[in-house]
């Protein structure tokens, strides 16, 4: 939970945005602004373009290397007695890899929109506060933090860890088994983070509708 006061929308989503950056889904820092408080300066923007390209390229190479290492280190024809099961696993891993790669590249193409959205939401919040119905940013922050903890940590790490332990026939020796385990947990966690992005977006809208309801409702 928050250890300080959460005063704006940027602070309310900073935990989830950090998770996005950790997995390659947020090329730019969220709260870097110039003196106008709206957009980075031209020099800073040029530097950020270069760093964001390097950041995105690095994660593309990282996920590609993990996927290739998984394919070359895993015998899909011998891990299961059924060829259909091994083929289904290969298909699932391939689709998950493509989904992750698309998310990383798409995040780079729309990298500046996160700041624009936060700025616009901040303007809406200011109008609501002046009208006497402020948005509860602390509640939003706590809800996002709790959702991250329960979904990403509990469901992905613990639930999928148990599922991966059942599949200890993968790989040769404990090195291969541990690698398979780590890849399985990583893939599922990335997928959970991807899904939670939509949930966080919905909570941002819901909190502002709640403020409007308090303002105009009975």
From TrEMBL:
It comes from Culex quinquefasciatus. The chain crosses the membrane at residues 15-32, 53-71, 83-105, 148-166, 178-206. GO terms for cellular component: plasma membrane. Keywords: Cell membrane, Membrane, Transmembrane, Transmembrane helix. GO terms for biological process: sensory perception of taste. It is found in: Cell membrane. InterPro entries: 7TM_chemorcpt (IPR013604). It comes from the Eukaryota. This is Gustatory receptor. It is a multi-pass membrane protein. It holds the Pfam family 7tm_7.
